[in-house]
Amino acid sequence: MHLEELRTLLARHVRPDWTTAIDGVLISRVDRPDPPAPSMSGTVLAVIAQGAKRLALGDRMYEYGPGQYLVASVDLPVTGQFTQVEPGRPALGFGLLLEPSAVAELLLQAGPGATPRAGAGAPPGIAVSDAPAALLDAVVRLLRLLDEPRDRAVLAPLVKREILWRLITGEQGATVRQLGLADSSLSHVSRAVRWIRDHYDQVFRVEEVARMSGMSVSAFYRNFQAVTAMSPIQFQKEIRLQEARLLLATHPGDVTGVGRRVGYDNPSQFSREYRRHFGAPPSKDAARLRDTARSATGVLP
Questions:
Q1: pLDDT tens, 14-41?
Q2: Fold type of domain 185-233
Q3: Cβ(30)–Cβ(48) under 8 Å?
Q4: Contact between residue 76 and residue 60 where contact means Cβ atoms under 8 Å apart
Q5: Which residues contact 110 (CB under 8 A, 6 or more apart)?
Q6: How sure is the predictor about 291, in pLDDT bands with cuts at 50, 70 and 90?
Q7: Distance from chain centroid for Cα 213
Q8: Whole-structure pTM over 0.70, yes or no?
Q9: Other C-beta atoms lying within 10 Å of the C-beta of residue 23
Q10: Which of 9, 174, 181, 209 could form a disulfide with 143 if both were Cys (CB 3.0 to 4.6 A apart)?
Q11: Could you tell me if 244 and 236 are in contact, meaning their C-beta atoms sit under 8 angstroms apart?
């Protein structure tokens, strides 16, 4: 019952840019299966109502379909693809951006002992579970408020807090709770992730990033791998190649210049690693991206 109404609400309120009248709430609709595409995950709750989605993070693969949810507690480089999309039956999904300050506020209000104790080490940055009925019910009630502008300003923040509480106390609560803990292992890794993302074009020493994150080198390696499914150097390479692909979409004729801008001094190494990652050399992939963009013009996402 929840899924049927969820599909109806999502289909009715989807916009071309996937935003809604409720801050932090997103609705996705995909009408055709597209090739896997790289992106950043964001810190988000995602619930699938129709179709399915597959995400790759490092050497990990996540798949979730109707009635399941995914939580991402760190903004990570992923490769995603909607699947099980058929004519007349698009993929439909709900998204809610997760704010560390909102998690911290709920944990403070709940007090000690209200939630399970965190285990040792950092949990994975992405996790998938079946959505319990109480969580789906809250998501549906939040989306109903899109039809009730008078009530939306007052009730939407309350329902969003309820959804967050269901996550905090649910199966993937350890992942979500650490978002709100300033001294958690996940928070330390998040600090390193942000630094690498902001300085992806620079050479760095892992020992320096570990020290900046407030961890020993051994703890940093262990927790970074647990959260991101990659080593710090692999993570940097992933960010570099994603940024290069974005730049090539607008500068397709400057492969060497793009390589330098993202941190590759050796053009041959850049082309080799780009081809290994995306399945085509930079110049050919740039042309393919332009053709895809032209063919998709005017089509809703």
A1: 999 899 999 999 999 999 887 888 889 9
A2: Arc Repressor Mutant, subunit A (1.10.10)
A3: no
A4: no
A5: 168
A6: low
A7: 22
A8: yes
A9: 10
A10: 9
A11: no
